[in-house]
Amino acid sequence: MFRFIRAEFMKLKGSSIIWVCLAACCLLPLIGFVVNLEASTQTTWVSYSAQNLWLAILLLWPCVFGLIGTYIFTRESIENTYRNLFIIPVGRVRLALAKLATLLLIILAMASLSYMLNFLGLFIGIPFETAPFWDGLITYLKSGLLMFFSLLPVLSVAVICRKGYLIAICATMIYTVLSFVGVWSSMLSSILPIVTILRVVQVTSIKIEYAFPMSVSYSCMAAISVVSVVSILWVLKKQDL
Length: 241
Prior knowledge:
The structure is a single chain. The chain has helices at residues 2-13, 16-35, 45-50, 53-78, 92-116, 130-150, 152-161, 165-182, 186-191, 193-200, 214-238. The chain starts with a helix and ends with a helix. The radius of gyration is 19 Å and the shape is globular. By secondary structure, it is mainly alpha-helical.
């Protein structure tokens, strides 16, 4: 499995999409740095590092990570190199799991990078404390992990469409907008996976009302994730070369 994951990273090595997504992940921390140039005396490390998290979860990360995930799963089909993967016998399920693992590692790495960029706040007087630092890092990593599960429906659309890269991108945008709008609906906010992330990590920068208890939100995310993974594996296993 490690060899397959390494191969996926090698495919992405020369791709400009990674650099574009890295730049996008750096955007919010840089904006936060500029915004706090005059407010540093009232800002703590916790509030400073968390100020952009809700925007990242609702708007930036779904688009960025959805774009990367869609690219990972559709690249071979678009470039007509899919059949080359099976010159040497490789299980399609194992290949799909390697792609999922690659996406997960990329999400966690970029979430960590976004958090580390908060160190820019030290230059404008944001106080640094060790305990809040580790708590914040865990929050970002937890958000990244949950974002991975939240984007599985988008990946299933990408796999089903196969060469429909634009269709998958449109699905990502629609999913992102729906999640953003769902913040103002107590019912939607309780069942949409992306909004559930805000609930789990207890983001307080935006007030959200929920119609159902946390157990319902967890159950919906778990059910959607399982159905999406099963769909991805089943479609890839049945697809013709």
